[in-house]
Amino acid sequence: MCCGLKRRFLLLYATQKGQAKAIAEEIWQQAGAHGFEADIHCMSEMDKYNLETEKDPVVIVISTTGTGDPPDTARKLVKKIQDTTLPPDHFAHLQYGLLGLGDSEYTFFCNGGKTVDRRLQELGARHFYDTGLADDCVGLELVVDPWIDGLWHALKEVFLLQKEKEGMNSAVDAVSSSLSAAPHIVHELNLSSKVQNLKLEDEGVKSSDVLSQKLVDISLVASNRDTEASLVHSVPPISQSALNIPALPPEYIEVQFQDTRGENPHLSSLISEGTTFEVPVTKAVQLTREDAIKTALLLELDIADTVFDYQPGDAFCVMCPNNVSEVEELLRVLELSEKGEYFVCVKVKQGTKKKGAARPRHIPERSTLKFILTWCLEIRAVPKKAFLRALVECTSDLGEKRRLQELCSRQGASDYMRFIRDPNVCLLDLLRAFPSCKPSLNMLIEHLPKLQPRSYSASSSNLYQPGKLSFVFSIVEFAACPTRPVSRKGVCTGWLAELVAPQLHTNRNTVDTNRGSCSTEKISIFARPDNAFHLPSDPSVPLMMVGPGTGISPFIGFLQHRQKLREEHTDWEFGETWLFFGCRHQDRDYLFKQVHYLALILCFLENGTLNHLKVCFSRDSSPTAEVAPPKYVQDVIRLHAKEVARVLLKEGGYFYVCGDKKHMADGVSDAVVDILSMEMETDKLEAMKFLATLREAERYLQDVWS
C-alpha cells in the first residue's frame, strides 16, 4: 500500500478552541505511514478547496460551540451548503467521513457535526466511513482513537474501488452496483462511550504498523510494596504489559531569548473575536453570607466611556490571566525564574516535519516569557495524550518515563481518565509528580492550548442603568485530592475575587452603597456575538424564567429592562412574568434579596414588573410541615403544571433556563416534557418533539454551563 504515489484525500477541520485542529493534525501526521497524503485545510479557507469539484475522499473534523452551533470557522461553509436552491444531487460526487466533537452535558450534543453531516446527505453526498461523535464529557479519545484507527481501512477500500472502476470502463453499470454493495456505512453511528464493544481496527494489519506506534520496553516492573494504582504508580496488568504509545509529535517551534528591553503587546492583540474594552470595576458586592457553601459576587463595570453595547441576556467575555504564584512556580520548575522578564522571539523551527507549521496565533512574535505564561497559555489545561508522549522524551528517571508511557498508551486509557482527566490534573501537577521531567519552553508553546477568555451573562440593563454592566459569578473552588495535592480557585473567578478584594464588602441587611465605589482596577472585556437569550421582541408575550443560584443573573437584567419599559410606555401591554428561583439556604444564599440598590426582586413584585415569584431552598428543612416543601426548581415547576402548559401551549409564551446543566437544566427539561405530555394527553416522545419545536422557534431558551 505504500508503493508508488501516495493517495490524496482532503482533510477539513473546523475548530473553536483548537481540539478539532489538533485531531486533524494527528490524522495528517499518521496519513503518510499508511500511504496517504492528507491535504489539510481549515474549513474557513474556502479559497484553498472546492467541494463542488472535489473528486477525492473528504475527511471532516468539526466541533460544536455555544448551544449547538458550528464553530466560527465553519460558518461560511455551513451558510453556503444551507442554500435552499441547491439541487438534491449537488454533492452526488462527494464521498466523505465525518468526526464530530461535542459534550453530552449540553442539549445539542455534536450538533455542529450533525448539521454538516445531515446537509451533505440531503445534497447527495455519500459516507465512505461511519460518522463518529466524540464526547468531551467522558473523554474525546474514547471515540477519536478508534475512529482514526478505522479510517485507514475505509480509505483503502475507497481507493481500491476507484482503481477497479478505472480498470473497468466497459462495465460501468456493474461497477456502480458493486459500489452500492461495498462496505460503506451510510447511516450515522453514535460512537459514544456507551458502545464500548465497537471495534474499528483493521485486523489484517499489526497495530504497530497501523498506528505508527512504538512497542516500548516493559522491563520496569512495579514495586511489590505498592498495591494500588495512582498517578505515579501502576499495577498489573498494565505495569506488565507491552504498550502501544502514540507517535512522537514533531517539534515545530523555536524560541530565542533576547534582552529585557521593549513592551509587551496589548491584550487586544491576543483575540480575533472582536473589539476589546478596558473598563473599571466600580462596585463589588458579596451576595452570599460568609458561611455559604459557595461565595457569589456581583461586579459592576463602568462602560460609559466606551461604545460597548449589550442587551439583557447577552453574554460577554473577560480576558483573565493565569495565577501569579502558579506562573512563578512553573518558571522555577523550568529553571527559568531569572528569565521571566526577558523578551523571547517565537518562530517556526527550520526543517520541521510538521506540515503547514505556523506560530500559534495566540502567541506574540515577541513578548516576555512571563507574558506568554500569564496571558497566552492555558497552564491549567488537562494535558492531552500527545503532550504526555512528548513529556516522555524529557523525563530522565526510568520509572517516571515508564509511567508517562502508560498514561498516554492505548492500554492506559482508563488510568488516563482516572488519574489525569477526571481530577483535572494540569502541567504543574505532572511536573510535581514526575520531578525528573524537564520540558523545554518550545514544548509548552506547542502543546498548551490558548488561554481562553471566560464568558459571563450580563445581569443588568443598559436601558435601566445607562453606562453600567453588571455580572454575577460564584468563586469556583477545586479541592485538593490525591492526584492534585493543592486546592485551587477558578482561573478567572479566583483572579476577579482577588482583584476586587480591597473594595469588596459582605452584603448585609443594610448596604452602604458608597463603599467600594472608588476602584481603579480595570478588566478587559469583549462582546460574545450571536446570542439568542433575549427578551421577546413583543412585550405582551408571557415569559417564565428559571434561574437557581447565579442562574438568576440574566433575569435581573430582564426585569430591570421590563420595569424601565413599563415606566416609559404606560400604554403598552406587558405579558405575565414568572421567576422560579432556588438555592441551598434561604438565609445564606438568597441572592439579591437584600441588595436594595439593585432593585430588589421584591420590588419587582410590588410594582408589577414580576407577577409570580416561586422559590425553594434545597438544604432547609421544615420539621413542622405536614408536607415536605419542594427542594428544587423542577419540583416547583411541576407544582405549577397548569400554568406552564397554559403559557407554552395557549399563549405562545417563552421559557428561559439559566444555570447548571447537569443537575438542574436537564431536570427542568424533564419536568416540562412531563407537563406537556400530561396536558397534551400524549406520550413523552410526542412531548419531546413539541419541546424540540419550541427550541427551534427560540421559545425554549437555555444559557447553561457544566
UniProtKB/TrEMBL annotation:
<dbReference type="InterPro" id="IPR003097">
    <property type="entry name" value="CysJ-like_FAD-binding"/>
</dbReference>
<keyword id="KW-0028">Amino-acid biosynthesis</keyword>
<keyword id="KW-0288">FMN</keyword>
<protein>
    <recommendedName>
        <fullName>Methionine synthase reductase</fullName>
        <ecNumber>1.16.1.8</ecNumber>
    </recommendedName>
</protein>
<dbReference type="InterPro" id="IPR001094">
    <property type="entry name" value="Flavdoxin-like"/>
</dbReference>
<feature type="domain" description="FAD-binding FR-type">
    <location>
        <begin position="274"/>
        <end position="536"/>
    </location>
</feature>
<keyword id="KW-0597">Phosphoprotein</keyword>
<keyword id="KW-0486">Methionine biosynthesis</keyword>
<keyword id="KW-0963">Cytoplasm</keyword>
<dbReference type="Pfam" id="PF00667">
    <property type="entry name" value="FAD_binding_1"/>
</dbReference>
<dbReference type="GO" id="GO:0009235">
    <property type="term" value="P:cobalamin metabolic process"/>
</dbReference>
<dbReference type="Pfam" id="PF00175">
    <property type="entry name" value="NAD_binding_1"/>
</dbReference>
<keyword id="KW-0521">NADP</keyword>
<dbReference type="InterPro" id="IPR008254">
    <property type="entry name" value="Flavodoxin/NO_synth"/>
</dbReference>
<comment type="subunit">
    <text>Forms a multiprotein complex with MMACHC, MMADHC and MTR.</text>
</comment>
<dbReference type="InterPro" id="IPR001433">
    <property type="entry name" value="OxRdtase_FAD/NAD-bd"/>
</dbReference>
<keyword id="KW-0949">S-adenosyl-L-methionine</keyword>
<dbReference type="InterPro" id="IPR017938">
    <property type="entry name" value="Riboflavin_synthase-like_b-brl"/>
</dbReference>
<dbReference type="InterPro" id="IPR039261">
    <property type="entry name" value="FNR_nucleotide-bd"/>
</dbReference>
<dbReference type="GO" id="GO:0050660">
    <property type="term" value="F:flavin adenine dinucleotide binding"/>
</dbReference>
<dbReference type="InterPro" id="IPR001709">
    <property type="entry name" value="Flavoprot_Pyr_Nucl_cyt_Rdtase"/>
</dbReference>
<keyword id="KW-0560">Oxidoreductase</keyword>
<keyword id="KW-0285">Flavoprotein</keyword>
<feature type="domain" description="Flavodoxin-like">
    <location>
        <begin position="9"/>
        <end position="152"/>
    </location>
</feature>
<dbReference type="GO" id="GO:0010181">
    <property type="term" value="F:FMN binding"/>
</dbReference>
<dbReference type="GO" id="GO:0009086">
    <property type="term" value="P:methionine biosynthetic process"/>
</dbReference>
<dbReference type="GO" id="GO:0005829">
    <property type="term" value="C:cytosol"/>
</dbReference>
<dbReference type="Pfam" id="PF00258">
    <property type="entry name" value="Flavodoxin_1"/>
</dbReference>
<dbReference type="GO" id="GO:0050667">
    <property type="term" value="P:homocysteine metabolic process"/>
</dbReference>
<dbReference type="InterPro" id="IPR023173">
    <property type="entry name" value="NADPH_Cyt_P450_Rdtase_alpha"/>
</dbReference>
<dbReference type="InterPro" id="IPR017927">
    <property type="entry name" value="FAD-bd_FR_type"/>
</dbReference>
<dbReference type="GO" id="GO:0046655">
    <property type="term" value="P:folic acid metabolic process"/>
</dbReference>
<dbReference type="InterPro" id="IPR029039">
    <property type="entry name" value="Flavoprotein-like_sf"/>
</dbReference>
<keyword id="KW-0274">FAD</keyword>
<dbReference type="GO" id="GO:0030586">
    <property type="term" value="F:[methionine synthase] reductase (NADPH) activity"/>
</dbReference>
